[in-house]
Specification:
With 411 residues, this protein is of the alpha+beta class. 34% of the residues lie in helices and 20% in strands. Helix 6 packs across helix 14, helix 7 packs across helix 9 and helix 8 packs across helix 13. The chain is elongated and about 80 Å long.
Length: 411
């Protein structure tokens, strides 16, 4: 497990957009065509006569020429009636402008499928374009194709998207679902942390490690157990320091540090939950100290797995480190990219650093086992059925505007 874990690097400038696919009807077309698309142009143009994307001025002029989207209003300055956009016209032009101008390369895209699940992608080009070539499904060309498979998507205003994983609707918190307006396009950037938790169990802003657990138990949850889980997650930050300092673990000292923090201003972690069994917990763990960020992330992932009992650490570490590195997905650094994307490209962590972390953890395996017993890690895991989700996010990462990730195991 640990060799496949990636820590996403959350960007302040990345925006998140929900784009409707006609109640999910065209979600598969979005994936097949590697696009997002809207039919807004067809509301004001005869699109079979268009060959290229109209300019903003042409779009506005066409809307003003359509009585559905315009009206005459008296202009005091010119002392005459002037044709202006009405409420519907203003909304339409705003939607087209958002689609064409505000969705940028690198933005995270979400759409809802016909089955009520949520599909995630990354915008791979900020340029909108016009195409009247319908998007077809391969399934529609087979002999046993259903009428649903044969549907073509004729939306002509498009942007390119690299599509990645699909998350079940039951896994998506109500805070996200309740934020989805009926509009074709809705910005969800304010919910960035919650949305990242859906596709990356670990992510960072450089100062904090974000970590999410899934509670798979369907039984009533003992409040004392969930409280103990959150208390244990407060151990992660001290464990990171112990791992990186190369000193011997002192289980009793670590537990007392957490207990003292309850009544002090020292915040070792904060957590939220969204569950009625099953459900999710989301935690924020400060990354303190002067060590390299990537080293903190490797130690942090190990500490989170250790204190939740999600993986057997000795077994995991037996294969960890031989090819370990933490690096951004891309390997070349194009000189013509904006600085935000140049920052994606990093040198790998030296394997010697990874080996030192691994060596210190294995050196203290008896103390770690004692800490695990004292913190009731196994009992908590058995009670809650903890696991971390690992959607296949590779498609979101392996291109120039893709998600920046630290590959903990380098695989």
């Amino acid at each position: 497990m640990i060799n496949s874990i990636k820590v996403a690097h959350i960007s302040e400038t990345q925006r998140i957009w929900f784009v409707r696919a006609s109640s999910g009807t065209y979600a598969r077309h979005f994936r097949a065509g590697k696009v997002i698309a809207t039919d807004h142009l067809s509301e004001i143009f005869e699109e079979n006569k268009l060959t290229v994307l109209p300019t903003p001025e042409q779009i506005r002029s066409a809307a003003l020429g359509n009585d559905k989207f315009s009206e005459f209003r008296y202009n005091e300055k010119e002392k005459k009636d002037i044709k202006v956009l009405n409420h519907s016209g203003a909304i339409l032009l705003s939607a087209i402008n958002k689609f064409t101008s505000e969705i940028n390369a690198g933005d995270l895209i979400i759409t809802k499928t016909e089955t009520g699940d949520y599909m995630f992608g990354v915008c791979s080009s900020g340029e909108a374009y016009f195409s009247n070539d319908p998007v077809k499904l391969k399934e529609g060309e087979t002999a046993d194709a259903t009428s649903y498979d044969r549907i073509k998507m004729n939306y002509t205003l498009r942007k390119n998207v690299k599509w990645g994983p699909t998350v079940k609707g039951s896994e998506v918190p109500n805070s996200v679902k309740n934020s989805l307006a009926r509009n074709t396009l809705t910005e969800l950037s304010e919910l960035k942390e919650v949305i990242y938790h859906l596709i990356y169990p670990f992510f960072t802003d450089g100062k904090t490690l974000y970590f999410s657990n899934k509670i798979r138990s369907t039984q009533d949850i003992n409040s004392a157990v969930i409280g103990k889980l959150f208390q244990n997650i407060s151990l992660v930050s001290p464990i990171i320091q112990a791992i990186l300092d190369g000193k011997e673990f002192d289980p009793e000292k670590l537990i007392k540090q957490v207990e003292r923090s309850i009544f002090s201003n020292e915040i070792l972690s904060t957590s939220k939950a969204d569950f009625a069994s099953p459900g999710d917990t989301w935690s924020k763990i400060p990354l303190i100290g002067s060590a390299d960020l990537s080293a903190k992330l490797v130690a942090g992932v190990i500490a989170c797995l250790l204190i939740t009992g999600i993986a057997d650490l000795e077994t995991e570490l037996s294969t960890f480190g031989s090819t370990a590195q933490s690096t951004a997905t891309q390997t070349n650094k194009p000189s013509d990219l904006p600085q935000i994307f140049k920052d994606k490209f990093q040198e790998p962590i030296p394997s010697s650093m990874i080996d030192a972390i691994k060596e210190n953890v294995l050196k203290n395996k008896e103390e770690i086992a004692q800490l695990s017993d004292s913190a009731y890690v196994g009992a908590i895991n058995n009670s809650l059925g903890l696991e971390i989700a690992q959607p296949n996010t590779t498609n979101l990462e392996n291109f120039e505007y893709g998600m920046r990730v630290h590959k903990i195991g380098g695989n």
